[in-house]
Amino acid sequence: MVRADSPAGARPRRVIFVCLGNICRSPAGHGIMRQLVAAQGLDERVQVDSAGTLEHMAGTPPDPRMKAAAARRGYHLDGRARAFSRADFDRFDLVVAMDRSNREDLHALDPAGQYRDKVKLLSAFLPPSAPPDVPDPYHGGAEGFERVLDLIEAACPAILHELLPER
Predict the structure, then answer these.
(1) pTM attached to this predicted model
(2) Among all residues, which ones are annotated catalytic?
(3) Quick check: 124 pLDDT over 80?
């Protein structure tokens, strides 16, 4: 059934968040964006996923420290890590890289540059004073996880606007 606020027959817009292992930053992006989409009643118009640039983390659940930090803010992080594949470029309208290294890894999967316009840094959706990279909190303390959540929360409304500019 197509909702009244969804253009008839329109395919959902799809966004994927990408970090290194898909256990900290990108699951947080996935969870925060999924909750924002649900809160605005846009579940049928926007689909959200996450992936990592490393294959060896596949199947790993989100980092318990990130899950705990997200839960304190009311976000539920679930799922299992998976690696971003070249086919994801066709499946997603927007690919949000957490840092410049992740972006370069994504560009390496697209040597012809066919999908470059789909790949954007999360910082592109933040004020110019924001850092260019969302820092990887994996080897740091609790404050690193909080900082990641702050940056992602600040960027998600602009990412949603990028996906649905008519809203």
Answers:
(1) 0.94
(2) 19, 25, 136
(3) yes
